[in-house]
Amino acid sequence: MTDPITMPALWTAEKRRIPQIGLSGTLWQMTRAGSNVHSYFTHPVWLPDGSGLVFASDRTGRTEAFLVEWPSGSMHQITAEGTGTPVVSLDGRCILYFRNRVLIEQDISTGDRRDVAAQPDQAEGVGLVGQTADGMNLAFACHRGHSSFFSKVPRCGGTVQIFHRDQRWLEHLNPSPSDPGLLSFAWTIPGQGESSQRLWLVGIDGKQVRPIYPQAPSELVTHEAWSADGKWIAFTSGPFDRTPGSFSLKRVDPYSGIHETIAKGGNFWHCAPNDDCSMIVADTNWPDEGIKLVDAERQSSETLCLSRCRTAHAHPCFSPDGRKVVFTSDMTGRNQIYVAELP
Q: Looking at the domain assignment, is residue 241 inside a domain?
């Protein structure tokens, strides 16, 4: 354990309501200073009790991790010596991130910081840190050239172990929320994105590597995310040529391979399910038509709020109670954090 750092003073709340006309959700802008972005939607952004969410901001002149409380909007700075992309631990006590090739765990309330492990020497880059469902292991994808390998380390610290190697470009290593021995990953082609079989599973022991979803020829599959109960993986499906209005949302049972289309004929892009995949939230692209709320049982969708992204990726995801959606937008000219309350 390194010495605790002195936590900076509380920042002034920046929360304000954004008027919406004819749309179902109530929209709040949570940040206004600097450029701000939350973690990728496949990894924990919210505290488990929904009392706040973590994001990264350059408002101090260097990228640091912050917590903004819900619903007050009170803002706390967590790090003071720089951060990579912060991911909330499953118990909600810490954030996990890489900085200077070291995996760090930092207490949200006290600022106590612990170096968990060094990034493997042969890694030229790493993905986000994921925590297995039992809380025991941390896992992340590493790259060297166009080849990949998956690494794990005990949450309490120890030796980093490589549990899978591949000559292909593999990314988006995401632990199952319910099975501590299972992770999903994506095979993509660098510079192109698409591949003929994107969705895969792998055991934490490196065994049982297998495809999840039978991808059709010329089908673009992307932006997969687990439901919190671990029973579904939701993803976006469309044509390789990305024709506007031709994208669908689908979900697949990762164990049986049973899959179904939830919504079609839209511009869905990044998508994230709620705890049981009964609802899916998605941003839109080509063009940006706002944040869509999709009912998986009724196979219907509605616009929750406008996102007005210029170049930013919204990356929406649900709060733990499924009643709020956080996303990033540069509608003001810089990236800011927004929360939309469901009707």
A: yes
What DSSP character marks residue 331? Answer: T
Length of the chain: 343
Q: What is the CATH number of the domain that holds 244?
A: 2.130.10.10
- Return d(Cα 23, Cα 198) in angstroms, integer: 35
Alpha-carbon gap, residue 310 to 52, rounded angstroms: 26
Evaluate whether residue 5 is within a structural domain: no
Q: Is the pLDDT confidence value at 314 over 50?
A: yes
Question: Which run of H or of E encompasses 239?
Answer: strand 233-239
Indicate whether 1 belongs to any domain. Answer: no
Average pLDDT over residues 233-262: 97
- Give residue 17's pLDDT band: very low, low, confident or very high (50, 70, 90): very high
Number of structural domains (the chain) is: 1
pLDDT at position 244: 95
The predicted-structure confidence for 268-304, as pLDDT tens digits, reads as follows 999 999 999 999 999 999 999 999 999 999 999 999 9
Phi-psi category of residue 171: left, alpha or beta, with phi > 0 → left and psi -120 to 50 → alpha: beta
DSSP string covering 99-161: ETTEEEEEETTT--EEEEEEPPTT-SEE---EE-TTS-EEEEEEEETTEEEEEEEETT----E
In a domain, 325, yes or no: yes
Q: State the residue range of the domain holding 24.
A: 16-341
pLDDT-derived band at 192, boundaries 50, 70, 90: confident
The secondary structure of the chain in percent helix, strand, coil, rounded to multiples of 5, reads 0, 45, 55
